[in-house]
Amino acid sequence: MTILGEVGQTVGRSMGTEMLIMLFLFLGMWFILIAPQKKKQKKHEEMLNTLQVGDKILTVSGIFGEICGLKPDRFEVKVDTHTTLEVHRSFISSKL
Questions:
Q1: Is 56 helix (H, G, I), strand (E, B) or coil?
Q2: What are phi and psi of 67, to 5 degrees?
Q3: Tens-place pLDDT, residues 11-68
Q4: Which helix (H) or strand (E) holds 40?
C-alpha cells in the first residue's frame, strides 16, 4: 500500500521492491508464453529431422503427400500419380 506525501511522491515502496515485482512479471511471461513456444519449435524441428522417403506428410497449406526425395532445405512430395512438388522444410506441418 502506498501513501502519498505532501509533494505527491509515493512513500512506503522501495525501488528494490518495484524491481522485484518487474522480475516476477517477466518470469511469469517467460513460463506462460516463451518457454512453451520454444518447446513446440524444438519438437517440430526434431520431427523434420526424422522424416524419410515414404513418410506421409501434411503441409501448412493443407496438401497431403508422400515424401519421394530429400534435399538439404526442401522435400520432394508426391501428391498424385504424376504430380510432384518441392516443398521447403519449414512448410511441413506434421507427419501422418
A1: strand
A2: -70, 125
A3: 556 777 888 888 888 888 888 888 888 999 999 999 999 999 999 999 999 999 999 9
A4: helix 35-50
Closest CA to 89 of 70, 63, 68, 61: 70
Residue matched to cell numbers 522444410: 89
Tell whether 55 and 95 lie within a shared domain: yes
What are 80's three cell numbers? Answer: 498424385
Are 61 and 45 part of one and the same domain?
Answer: no
Q: Are 19 and 43 in contact (CB under 8 A)?
A: no
Q: Can you tell me the distance from the alpha carbon of 86 to that of 70, in angstroms, rounded to the nearest whole number?
A: 10
- Alpha helix (H) residue ranges in the chain: 15-29, 35-50
Q: How many CB atoms lie within 10 A of CB 89?
A: 15
